[in-house]
Amino acid sequence: MLSEAPKKNLLLQSFGDSINVAVIGANGGIGQALVEQLSSSYCVENIFSLSRKGNHDQPFNSKSIYIDLEDETSIANAASVIGKTVHELDVVCVATGILHSHNNLLPEKSWKTLDCGSMEAIFRINTIGPALVAKHFLPLLSVKKRSALAILTAKVGSISDNFLGGWYSYRASKAALNMIIRTLSIEMARRNADTVCVGLHPGTVDTHLSKPYQRGVEPGKLFSTTKSAGYLLEVLDSLSPNNSGFIYSWDGVELPY
After folding, report:
1. CA-to-CA distance for 50 and 68, rounded, in angstroms?
2. pTM as predicted
3. Do 174 and 219 meet the contact criterion of CB atoms below 8 Å apart?
4. pLDDT higher than 60, residue 213
5. Does residue 74 form part of some domain?
6. How many domains, the chain?
7. Which residues of 21-55 are buried (b: 16+ CB within 10 A; e: fewer)?
8. What are the b/e assignments for 205-226, b being 16+ CB within 10 Å?
């Protein structure tokens, strides 16, 4: 654990005081930035930082927990640990995703390069993993006050906004994720009328995921992880149950499915 740092902001103030937040993917660029931003909020009491790294240095009010989105048992175990630590969660943020890897997994430029194994790998992380997080973590969300499930998605997952083609697996996995978010929002509303379930598009962020594709980004549109995390938390803080089930960009603009 790192030494206690002074509080500096009021992020997520719409959820009340002394809230509990879980960040899945806390070892990634955006996930780590979310944890750092939340650790400085006057409104956040406990942060659960979940990743494959497990025990890694975290801010003073953050507890590190192991999770692997490709292993449902680990997801269930992580939820169980949190449930034994706090009475309930107020916010769950899923900040995971894969576009490419060192194992020759690359976004497809053409249908000619489609590969079953690569498609399965991307869907496991981008679609199935977040769905299983919802399965095990939604029972921890408060049913008596404002709560939220926010999942990182991507603008390229929009079907109606696809005019360039390519990136079949990544686009399809995010489009499927958007449908899961929409469907979850309907069920969550039956459980708690004051809940929000949304997809958040972080923009182009200076991370490992975007590194090979930053050359054509407009000046000022390549965000640091800190700036992107701040934008996303501000957007989440501004949303109401009427916004549940939709996809929002880092600037608060609703994106098409």
Report:
1. 9
2. 0.89
3. no
4. no
5. yes
6. 1
7. bbbbbbbbbbbbbbbbbbbbbebbebbbbbbbeee
8. bbbebbeeeeeeeeeeeebebb
